[in-house]
Amino acid sequence: MNSDLLCMQLALDEAQKARIKAPPNPWVGCVLIKEGTLIGRGHTSVAGGPHAEVNALQGVNASGATAYVTLEPCCFHGKTPPCVDALIRSGVSKVVIGIEDPDPRVAGKGIARLKEAGIPVLCGVLEEKVRSQLSPYIKQRQTGRPYVVLKSAASVDGRTAAADGTSQWISSEKARLHAHRMRAESGAILVGSGTYLADKPQLTVRHGEHPPKQPLRIVLDRSGKIPPAENFIITNLGLSDLLEDLGRQGILQVLVEGGPAILGAFLKEQLSDRLLIYLGNKLLGENGFPLASGLPIGTLSEAPTLQLSDFFSLDETLVLDYRVKQTSVST
Prior knowledge:
2 domains, Dihydrofolate Reductase, subunit A
């Protein structure tokens, strides 16, 4: 394999270490290679702390080294100085970048600064992998809206609860721990009023790595049935307006844990990007609750199209990870 690909994969692995703690900043990884040897590595700190490049450069002599960084180095003064300045001062001889930063404050300007300083730059190495890893950040920067992940546990026959509404637990304990990881990666968690009233969910991260602060806990209540609740945001905003508002707050990813109605609404309005189904080992029958409701599908050609991105098992639960294409749902 090409050495640039191998080294960028190391940077991707490093970036993943920052997935939970970095938001609202992008989770970036950087490695330094000198004469074929890894001399430094770093990833994005908690917001306000050093970025990946600065952490990788800490305490090493990077003169003549090649820096591999998943995202174009920043070139503006925010809470920290520009990373391009740190790279230029370090004396690196080359910078290899995964993707250009979609943030308009950067958007090629960091690459231009490096080239102006006489440092060769190669951009686009493992581009698809980097884009996949940073998809919530890219979505928010390009559209102003967060990346939307729909999550549901379902039986083998696609039911999310039995006829009497019971659903705990369809999925395995390991699957539920994975769901907490998804919460930790999200800036907000959203449920509908039905799920809130039926399950009284805490919507907090209680297992595994914790984010610097708990996600926003949002309940969508169009009927006004739910009184104000401490630590919860009760809202009657439309889905599109709600996502716009969350995007303005810097939320990069929203995890939707609602029931059939709210999942169906997101799919119908073509506002979701990813669908995670935790498929348990039970059969709940035709009277059980469906995965999604309210979809106006009269024929197969009107059905939403999903692209299977990954699948794996967690004990007796099969996790199906889909990307949602936004072209097929009839309104």
